[in-house]
Amino acid sequence: MACSLHVAWDDGLTSYNFGPQHPLAPVRVELTMALSREFGLFDRPNVALSAIEPASDDMLGTIHRPDYIEAVKKAGKTLEPDDPYCLGTPDNPVFSDMHDASALVAGASVRAASSVWNGESEHAANIAGGLHHAMPGNAWGFCVYNDAALAVAWLLEQGAKRVAYVDVDVHHGDGVQTVFYDDPRVLTISMHESPLTLFPGTGRPSETGGPGAEGYAVNVALPAGTNDSRWLRAFDAVVPPLLREFQPEVLVTQHGADTHALDPLANLMLSVDGQRRISSELHRLAKETAGGRWVVLGGGGYELVQVVPRTWTHLLAEASGSALDPSADTPQAWRDFVRERTGEVPPLYMTDGRTVEVTPFEAGFDPEDPVDQAIQATRREVFPSHGMDPSL
Question: What is a single Pfam family found in this protein's UniProt entry (predicted)?
Fold first, then answer.
């Protein structure tokens, strides 16, 4: 069934650019939008491209400290590093007008949230967003302003009493967790590679929320090498039961594509087909638990040609209510554009050819299996806070 979808977009979103040697290359967003256009996603009658404005200083100030905002503005003019704010590091190089570019990404996520909250659309997306590492007072992990946290904070300011944030990026959503760690109005769930093997080194199951918000920070730390079926087993064991119990008014999701086996910065082993299944599951849960109100954000993803454009095009199609055939060929015009734009050989199909089968956790727990151990560690830490039995 078709769903109304607003895609927050401005060509200026590709100006969030740390330079030609940085792994977070804006071409991944450019290729995603081009692939989505070739499939006619933006021509669907239920899909609209939504104009955006940069987040104001006051809006950014709901999350970020005023001195940090001023430091970002200054660094974008002087192009000089500012160590206390982690500006000018290898992860977060300074670039010209970085405040303007970062504020535009933030504004796009708030626009997506407002589209859903105000009833303009059932679903909304900012595919250039999901910069989930940025902290209130410093840049972190390729992220200058935390648009994901800002979108959630905006919803709370409008009167939302329960907002759920589910992060499926390979890296822990540490910035969003930090902002809402003491706030029981926000349920943050992050599924990520174990902090023992990957940046940022946080996201252990024992990180469950501050006083009065125990159990509202949820972390599933998966071992390196986890594949589609095992990842989805963990998802099924944790995310649906918590969302059903919490009953959010809005579901905000971050869809980093860096869980893919080809991603050069991480160690999980998912496929485009597994990632497509994740989008479908989150869409279903938005309808079941949040009245269909779903805000979709991008995130990480560093295999810029083979993975990100296909995964996020599937995501946008899913959010529109009409999924693409995974066996479809990639359009020839897009392949030509990829070669011209990047010099790389494009993928020929919208699938990796994987069939994803999942054995539910309830079918049996294997105490020797590291994924089952991760599942049980999380359930034991957070389920009792919600009146739920971790063994069921």
Answer: Hist_deacetyl
Between the two ends of the chain, the Cα-to-Cα distance in Å is: 33
The pLDDT of residue 288 = 98
Tally of CB atoms within 10 A around 71:
20
List strands edge to edge, sheet with 217-222: 47-50, 5-8, 123-126, 294-297, 250-254, 163-167, 186-193, 217-222
- Residue-wise pLDDT tens digits, 2-20: 799 999 999 999 999 999 9
- Alpha-carbon distance of 154 to 141, in angstroms, equals 23
Determine the average pLDDT of the residues in 214-241.
Answer: 98
260 as an active site residue: the answer is: no
Q: Which pLDDT tens digit goes with each residue over 267-326?
A: 999 999 999 999 999 999 999 999 999 999 999 999 999 999 999 999 999 999 999 999
Mapped onto helix, strand or coil, the DSSP state of residue 271 is coil
Q: Is the pLDDT of residue 1 over 90?
A: no
* The predicted structure's pLDDT at residue 151: 98
Residue 6, H or E segment: strand 5-8
pLDDT in tens, 101-142: 999 999 999 999 999 999 999 999 999 999 999 999 999 999
**Could you give the C-alpha distances from 295 to 71, 149, 251, in angstroms and in order?**
29, 12, 6
Dmax (CA) for the chain in angstroms is: 59
The DSSP secondary-structure symbol of 143 reads B
* 8 Å CB contact between 126 and 254: no
- Which tokens sit at 28? 């991944």
Pair 319, 125: CB distance under 8 Å: yes
Q: How far apart are CA 104 and CA 238, in angstroms?
A: 34
- To 10 degrees, what angle do helices 272-289 and 308-319 make? 30
Write out the E strands in 240-293: 250-254
- The catalytic residue among 132, 133, 171, 314 is 133
In sequence order, which residues have a C-beta less than 8 Å from that of residue 170 and are 6 or more positions away?
A: 192, 193, 198, 256, 258, 259, 263, 265, 266, 268, 300
